[in-house]
Amino acid sequence: MAEETPKKTPRKPDPTTQLLNEVKAELKAIGDWTVNDLPTYKAVHYDSRARAWGRHYADHGRIDGLLLSLAFEALSSLNPAERRLSLVQLAAASLAAIEKLDGGK
Asked: I want to staple 50 with a disulfide (CB 3.0 to 4.6 A). Which of 39, 73, 75, 86 is the partner?
């Protein structure tokens, strides 16, 4: 009689992979949109909001100041490469905040 090999249990994805899968699902739900250039006057306004929220984050160290300063920084960037970097920073901070909410599961 042949020996049975134990069945392997499927590997559970790591928390970051699970989180990225959730984000991808949300992106599908959002749908398509355009990324238009912003008028300079709006970029200037968003830049002032980014600085204000940056000061708030420096003073209080809370998530609202961090996320809002990064979001306004992304909106104030007229250069596509700078905007992309700011959006990556915003996404990273958002993912880190979700991981803290999940308790490092």
From this structure: 73
8 A C-beta contact, residue 46 and residue 78? no
Contact of 71 with 90, CB cutoff 8 Å = yes
pLDDT in tens, 71-96: 999 999 999 999 999 999 999 999 99
Containing 18, the helix (H) or strand (E) segment is: helix 15-30
CA distance linking residue 42 with residue 75, whole number of Å: 9
Residue located via tokens 């960037």: 77
- Tally of residues, the chain: 105
Domain ranges of the chain: 38-101
Higher pLDDT, 1 or 85: 85
Measured CA to CA, the distance from residue 85 to residue 2 in angstroms comes to 58
